[in-house]
Design a protein that fits this description.
CATH topology: Rossmann fold
Strand content: 15-25%
CATH class: Alpha Beta
Number of strands: 10
Helix content: 25-40%
Order of helices and strands: EHEHEHEHEEEEEEHHH
CATH architecture: 3-Layer(aba) Sandwich
Number of helices: 7
Strand order of the largest sheet: 2-1-3-4-10-9
Shape: globular
Length: about 240
């Protein structure tokens, strides 16, 4: 159980291996209490979720607007709306970013083709004054087939040639990444196994993914730590 002085992060998880990844040891080392809620199984009305110092909405293979297939999405979007309105810190990753955009009134639609693999993002001017500046030209992991439009009044913080909107921030309390900074490249095999059907359909070279994951692993650990430390500091949580 967390102590009365420890900080708590609640992570909404859609798929077992798409977890907090590199974020988890970073927080544990700083004395945080980590709690997962499995979306579609666990009760999202639990007070612990709303009271958490940090809420992280993780990735997953379902469509952000597929309420007919996955009714829990509507409840999840309502929870995200409440969190955003409270201006308590929230981080959305991949599907989590798409759900955040949806909660802000933006659409989430399929791309012409999936974006899977390691590649750099182009940071915009606002991003260079944000914690995302630490990404620089470093290739990051992309693994998505949908993209969000930009919520009204917000600016895109990153892009690729395949996907024009890859990140956004709202003040200091809300941050969204379409890409995966959190993935521990040393665990890439879980992704290759868990998404084997998708990789077969798209013809992605598994050996190349393994090689690039290994190549960028150490640098991505460093970058993730810098991004999170800067963002948590902005929210008084460092």
């Amino acid at each position: 159980m967390p102590s009365s002085t420890s900080k708590t992060v609640v992570a909404l998880r859609h798929l077992a291996f798409e977890d907090l990844g590199l974020i988890e040891p970073l927080l544990l080392q700083s004395g945080w209490h980590v709690r997962y809620y499995d979306v579609g199984v666990d009760d999202l009305s639990a007070p612990e979720i709303r009271n958490a110092n940090l809420l992280v909405v993780l990735g997953g293979p379902v469509g952000a607007e597929d309420d007919d297939l996955y009714p829990f999405l509507a409840d999840e979007v309502r929870l995200i709306k409440e969190r955003l309105a409270s201006q308590k810190p929230i981080l959305g990753i991949c599907l989590g970013a798409q759900l955040m955009a949806r909660a802000l009134g933006a659409s989430v639609k399929p791309m012409s083709h999936k974006e899977i693999g390691y590649a750099p993002v182009e940071l915009t001017a606002p991003a260079r004054k944000s914690p995302l500046v630490h990404i620089g030209n470093q290739p990051v992991l992309h693994w998505h087939g949908d993209q969000f439009s930009m919520p009204q009044g917000l600016e895109s913080f990153a892009s690729t040639s395949a996907c024009p909107h890859q990140a956004f921030l709202i003040g200091s309390h809300a941050m969204a990444w379409q890409f995966h900074l959190e993935v521990d490249a040393r665990r890439i095999e879980q992704w290759l196994i868990g998404h084997c059907g998708e990789l077969s359909q798209t013809g992605i070279d598994r050996q190349q993914l393994r090689a690039t994951a290994n190549l960028h692993s150490a640098k991505l650990i460093e970058i993730l730590a810098l991004v999170m430390q800067d963002w948590l500091a902005l929210n008084g949580l460092a």
